[in-house]
Design brief:
By secondary structure, the chain is an alpha/beta fold. 42% of the residues lie in helices and 15% in strands. Strands 1, 2, 3, 4, 5, 6, 7, 8 and 9 form a 9-stranded mixed beta sheet that branches.
Length: 286
């Protein structure tokens, strides 16, 4: 295989082909695979601004608490990977699988977010090789799933609230440029579309009492967008231009500042109300 393409629109197309092949192979089990990475933003909001795309596929699995896993069997997923032409990306790494698509390697990564074995690979029951990397942040995506079509195949993807909660926490914990960009891109597009309900959607998928650290992480990543020269707006502007945006970097950075500030203010207000016990039964602020 040749070196993989960079994060781009062309790479996104290749990633969709690879994931569609896997979805076709898993058949009726596809609902157990939740797409959470760079393939998701364009399924959540409409935007005239192009998204940079992605060169890999991130899939979140639900394995629950450690003492519940004996009842699980992921043998079907391992069989589907082989059937769809995937192999492990590196020796002894069961959570990253790769498939050649038109001469380029597309990597699919399987992730979980559980309390035990932090930042380690977890073996999946019923599979000889397949595993999942345990990372902090993405579990809210399991509580907010919508249906989409990826590469012509029906797929389960994280909804707006689940995606932003997962991406915001991951962006804070990892500080990866792609996480900061995706987080801001969705918020900018959501604000431009006039919906402005991102904070409410995030509040629907987190428990502000039991998940205080996660809620605080989402607020904290917003602080990385407090000024145009801060890390968040700078990364958003750079990657937006790389994706083909026509605006100047200064204008793009300001877009990120405004959109994230709008979200942060609404989220902080709803969070404060929830923690003081003044939210309604549906999780909306009173």
């Amino acid at each position: 295989m040749s070196a993989g393409p960079s994060r781009s629109r062309d790479a996104r197309a290749l990633a969709e082909i690879a994931y569609a092949d896997l979805l076709q192979a898993v058949g009726s089990n596809r609902s157990h695979l939740v797409l959470i990475g760079g393939l998701v933003p364009e399924h959540l909001v409409e935007s005239d601004e192009p998204h940079q795309g992605t060169n890999d596929v991130d899939v979140l699995l639900d394995i629950g608490l450690v003492y519940d896993r004996d009842d699980l069997d992921f043998g079907w997923l391992e069989e589907a990977l082989y059937s769809a032409g995937f192999v492990t990306a590196t020796p002894n790494t069961g959570w990253r699988w790769v498939k050649d698509v038109h001469g380029f390697p597309v990597v699919v990564e399987f992730l979980v977010d559980v309390q035990d074995s932090a930042e380690q690979e977890i073996a999946l029951p019923g599979a000889a090789t397949l595993g999942a990397k345990n990372v902090r942040g993405p579990s809210p995506a399991l509580r907010d799933i919508r249906h989409a079509v990826v590469g012509g195949q029906a797929a389960a993807v994280a909804g707006l609230g689940g995606y932003l909660a997962a991406k915001g926490a991951s962006a804070y914990y990892r500080r990866a440029d792609k996480d900061l960009y995706d987080f801001a891109w969705v918020l900018v597009a959501d604000l431009r579309a006039g919906s402005g309900n991102a904070a409410t959607e995030v509040m629907r998928v987190i428990d502000p009492s039991a998940e205080r650290d996660r809620a605080d992480a989402i607020l904290s990543v917003c602080h990385l967008f407090d000024a145009p020269a801060a890390d968040g707006p700078r990364v958003f502007a750079e990657l937006s231009q790389a994706a083909g945006a026509d605006e100047s970097r200064e204008s793009l950075a300001l877009d990120a500042v405004v959109a994230v500030a709008h979200f942060k203010a609404a989220f902080a207000d709803e969070l404060a109300r929830a923690r003081s016990g003044t939210s309604d039964p549906d999780g909306r602020s009173a």
